[in-house]
Amino acid sequence: MPRFSINHIDEYSQPYPVWESDNLSEAWDQLDSLTATMEEAHRPLSGQLEEIIRALRGQIDEAEAESNVDAIVETLFPRG
User: Are 31 and 56 in contact (CB under 8 A)?
Assistant: First the structure.
């Protein structure tokens, strides 16, 4: 399962992915692109783009937090 994804809802109210990645750098690039699109739009469609941006930013924040915890654990308890 990809670590980062953007989903849309189909006619049966089920989410389906329209973008997926396991790479944090790609997720940041996608977030920057979406944010730029929203800033250029005069009126985003009913908050959908804002919701997508919030969801992706949450996924990125969670991944970075996990990475920081892993680094702290590795520093305190090195393998070897």
Answer: yes
Q: Helix, strand, coil % (nearest 5) of the chain?
A: 60, 15, 25
Q: Is 21 helix (H, G, I), strand (E, B) or coil?
A: strand
pLDDT digits (tens, 9 = 90+) for 40-60: 876 666 688 889 999 999 999
pTM above 0.90, yes or no: no
| Beta bridge mates, 21 | 4
Angle between helices 48-76 and 24-40 (to 10 degrees): 150
Estimate to the nearest angstrom the gap between the alpha carbon of 46 and the chain centroid: 20
